[in-house]
Design a protein that fits this description.
This protein is of the alpha+beta class. The protein contains four helices and nine strands; from the N terminus they run H-E-H-E-E-E-E-H-E-H-E-E-E. A hairpin with a 4-residue loop joins strand 2 (54-62) and strand 3. The longest helix is centred in the N-terminal third of the chain and has 18 residues, at 7-24. Residues 10-23 and 191-197 have low confidence and may be disordered.
């Protein structure tokens, strides 16, 4: 006689699997927008930082769980990306960096993780991330980022082209200041179909 698994057990297992799968893969789309479409509260936070900045661009990002806004620009030879939620509250600030900008011990741990989780990989982009936390004001986070401080609270966000099985896909991988793995999600290339008119 064949034993059957009760439906009361199977359903929660499928739900848990679905939650795990969605936590790993959040598909993100980015659209260029006009400055007037950017949250006013967010602009108030960064208005001073935009003085003397070059190549200022504004974006709206959507993924499977949220909407956010991002301002990208170059200032003092550094590329910045400042992200806000839909209400205009600061989420994080990222600065484009190169591997030599990461302490050796941290970068070695990052490479160990990538080598252990991909058959083959190529780092396409690295950003030093200052995530906003309730323990400090948005102004403090902005100040720390624009002073480019090496704090224990920073993260490194890598865009990696990696091969796990047969195909090569793009991933966003997050590590803490010590190079410890925090999260991974599959990312799609930016969508610039949204035309300014």
């Amino acid at each position: 006689m064949r034993s059957q698994i009760p439906m009361g057990i199977l359903l929660p297992l499928f739900l848990l699997w679905g939650l795990f799968a969605s936590a790993q893969y959040k598909y993100e789309r980015e659209y260029r927008i006009r400055k007037v479409q950017f949250p006013e509260k967010a602009l108030d936070y960064i208005q001073e930082k935009l003085i003397d900045a070059k190549r200022i661009r504004f974006y709206k990002e959507t993924d499977s769980i949220k909407v956010s806004y991002e301002a990208k620009f170059k200032k003092d030879r550094l590329w910045y990306s400042i992200e806000f939620d839909k209400e205009g509250m600061l989420e994080d600030i990222e600065i484009l960096i190169n591997p030599p900008d990461i302490p050796n011990d941290s970068f070695n741990k990052i490479q160990e993780y990538l080598s252990g989780n991909f058959k083959k990989y190529r780092i396409k982009k690295i950003q030093q991330q200052y995530a906003f936390s309730e323990s400090e004001s948005p102004e403090t986070t902005i100040k720390n980022a624009f002073q480019n401080l090496m704090l224990p609270s920073i993260n490194y966000e890598l865009i990696v082209s990696g091969k796990k099985e047969k195909t090569t896909e793009q991933f966003e991988v997050l590590f803490d200041a010590e190079g410890k793995f925090k999260s991974i999600r599959q990312s799609l290339p930016p969508n610039y179909d949204h035309v300014l008119y």
